[in-house]
Every structure is written in C-alpha cells, then in structure tokens.
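for the writeup, i need someone to sanity check this before i put it in the appendix. the sequnce is what the collaborator sent (i think, or maybe the updated version? ugh). structure was predicted straight from it, no edits. if anything looks off just tell me and ill rerun, i have time this weekend
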Amino acid sequence: MKLRLVTLVCVMSGGAVIAAETGPKDVQFDDYGAVEESLTGVAGDAASGAAIVGDKSKGNCVACHQLTALADIPFHGEVGPMLDGAGDRWTEAELRGLVANAKMTFEGTVMPAFYKDDGFIRPGDAYTGKAPTAPLTSILSAQEIEDVVAFLATLNEN
C-alpha cells in the first residue's frame, strides 16, 4: 500500500512539473508584449543564458546586438540595440516577451521570435515548391528563454 502511495505521489508531482511549462501557443503577452509569468516555473540560470546569447547555433544574439559582457565573442552586430544595461531598461516580464517574440512589442522588427512554432512563411514553396511541411519547433526551449532572461536581467548600467 505504501509503495502505491509513493508511486502515486511521484507520478502526480512529475505531472505538475510537466504541466508548469507554457507552450509557445499558450504564452500570454500583455498589451505591450510583456510576459509576466515564467514559461517554466523554474528560475533561469544566468550563466546558461550567457552561453545561449553567445552561441551561434542557439540564440546568437551577438550577431545583431553589441554586448560588453561577451566582448570575447567576435563579430557583434549593430542591427539591434546595445544590450549593456538591458536589466535597467526592461523588466523581467518585458525581457521575457522580447526574447519569446519581440514582434509583440515592436511590430516589424527583424528580431526572430525565439519561442514560436507556428505562423511561419515558407518562401521555399515560391521558389522550389519543396519547403518542408512538417511542424517547426521553437528556436529556444522554455527553459532556455528563462535562462536568457536571467542573464539579460543581470546587465546593469553600472
């Protein structure tokens, strides 16, 4: 009997962790594009976020933004605003919204939506007729978004 109870508690608590993650289609943006609620319910890790920001195969934020904290990574871009002081300029909710889908705040921005998995234009159909039809996944996971937000929140003007 105790074993069944322990198993039931483990299953139920594991399900709660899974249920806590917000999927890309379920993200709730406010009128200004901010996302108040964590996408995972787990605090982000700033060190992991810094790695994602500089990783050319993940966030690659430095391709468009300059960032003194990651000056050792070559080829910073000038398309987006300087990220130094991002933690002073934007709240955590605003940062989460910007990283998840900046178009909810800045219509027409060229910044990609890092947490979106539908509504994409597939221009390959117009040229080759061979664009993939399988569903696309978001560029970053919910926890990776939280990690990037945690890192950006540490960037102060001082």
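The CA atoms of residues 19 and 40 lie 9 Å apart. Helices lie at 2-20, 46-54, 86-89, 92-101, 124-127, 142-153.
thx in advance!!
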